[in-house]
């Protein structure tokens, strides 16, 4: 278990745009986990990767007029995950249909779909806008009998829900070894071990074909770089759900998608984040 630095950044003024930008910049600097609140953001990085000069220059170049107060402390590895989970991951209900909670939670609201996630360091508890936007789409669609890909599965949350919603085959791909291991555990917790988990990147799609629903909640740059390989897996009449980017990024995504025969169907947004639905002919 690693020791972590807990970095606390209070922003004045503070709003969701600022904490989102801050989290994105800190992610590039190696931070792994982010807990935004009304006054700022708490973020975590492995102690050996922490470089205060990088934080100073990142804040100096922050793109919006903002004053920051910064403090940090060392969090020893042993209890870190447990602390984080207990303090910050509360059960969440989406569209009155789907509850996501951890195995240690008590008094869980009853819902048609009950997903257990012990996230450790992986992304995907349903609390981030991008995850919940995709979950809402999955709850609204008929997934019965579909072949599904979940690219960038993180905790496996979307692959788990797709399986619960009746998908026939679900392939889930994750590049990060830690998240992959966590997804394996979460599949077991939800009895969804039928999900075919792949450790790797877009190259894992080489043998995947005839996909009816392709989900990728990653980020704009990876999606635009890899979308041709995503499109190559699709059956006719397939749907693609893309997230992990802002509404203003839609034209960039569409300029990569349209030459591949993918057309715009609709999009939903939450806190500027976007879930884009595309379809093939
Ligand atoms: C934003 S998280 C989404 C997690 C989960 N699917 C959700 O919706 O909450 C993106 C995930 O994609 C993974 N990832 C990043 N680049 C990737 C790539 N090129 N191929 C596969 N997975 C990737 C990250 O490690 C991370 O777990």
Automatic annotation (TrEMBL):
Keyword Ribosomal protein set for record: yes
Q: Which Pfam families match?
A: PrmA
Q: What is its EC number?
A: 2.1.1.-
**GO terms for MF:** protein methyltransferase activity
Into which EC class is this enzyme placed? transferase
**Could you tell me the superkingdom of the organism this chain comes from?**
Bacteria
The record's keywords, sorted A to Z, are:
Cytoplasm, Methyltransferase, Ribonucleoprotein, Ribosomal protein, S-adenosyl-L-methionine, Transferase
Keyword Electron transport in record: no
Q: Where in the cell is it found?
A: Cytoplasm
GO CC aspect terms: cytoplasm; ribosome
CDD domains membership: AdoMet_MTases
Chemical reaction(s) catalysed: L-lysyl-[protein] + 3 S-adenosyl-L-methionine = N(6),N(6),N(6)-trimethyl-L-lysyl-[protein] + 3 S-adenosyl-L-homocysteine + 3 H(+)
Q: What does this protein do?
A: Methylates ribosomal protein L11.
State the NCBIfam families in the record.
PRK00517.2-2
The family line of this record is: Belongs to the methyltransferase superfamily. PrmA family.
What the entry lists under PANTHER family is as follows:
ELECTRON TRANSFER FLAVOPROTEIN BETA SUBUNIT LYSINE METHYLTRANSFERASE
Q: What is this protein called?
A: Ribosomal protein L11 methyltransferase
Q: Which organism is it from?
A: Duncaniella muris
